[in-house]
Amino acid sequence: MTTREPADVAATRTAYDIVASDYAELLRDELDRKVLDRAMLAAFADLVPAGHVADVGCGPGRVTAHLAGLGLSVEGVDLSPGMISVARQEHPSLSFSVGSMEALDFAAGSLAGIVAWYSIIHTPGERLPALFAEFARVLAPGGLLLLAFQVGDEPRHISRGYGHDVSMDAYRLPVARIETLLTDAGFGPRARLVREPVAEERTPQAFLIAERPA
């Protein structure tokens, strides 16, 4: 018996398929001007145990490539075939695959780290506990998780993005709530950074590193 895919997952996939090429171009150099974001990625790279890392919700692969440049063995996974196509074109030396972060195609305990860089923002709150449980499943003991997300406590419907008409929902998330859900999923906190918005951002941005205890 097959499980029906939630409508929001299909809508998110369609939206990112539509914007993939323009998204990649517009955000190509975004990390260059975000010092604190780079600092958290560097801290993750320094702290994560030896082993393989997954960039889940990797989009066109810019963060995947950044992590590879920091010396990590990393591959990207994304819901959107359009995004994966762009990622493979832009970063042909790296591995990318289409997949859902809610049902990762990795064996239990097989990953040293997971980066979910603004990729949990389209998951409704009621499915976040199962999502974090899935992250915990594929991480080895001592493995690290890095989350990035916009801070807030309200849903948004996005009808226009990166020059295209789209239709998908996104969620700004309260830091304390996410930390509680991570604890409930068995993670221990390692680091927290909340910075003020810069450039086009409208809300503070949060970055959390958590550990699956040994």
UniProtKB/TrEMBL annotation:
The question of whether Ribosomal protein is a record keyword is answered with: no
Annotated InterPro entries: Methyltransf_25, Methyltransf_Superfamily, SAM-dependent_MTases_sf
**Which GO MF terms are attached to this record?**
methyltransferase activity
Matches recorded under PANTHER family: METHYLTRANSFERASE (PTHR42912)
Superkingdom field: Bacteria
- Record's keyword annotation contains Transferase: yes
Q: Which UniProt keywords apply?
A: Methyltransferase, Transferase
Residue ranges annotated for the Methyltransferase domain, each copy included: 53-143
Q: Name one GO biological process term.
A: methylation
This chain's protein is named Methyltransferase domain-containing protein
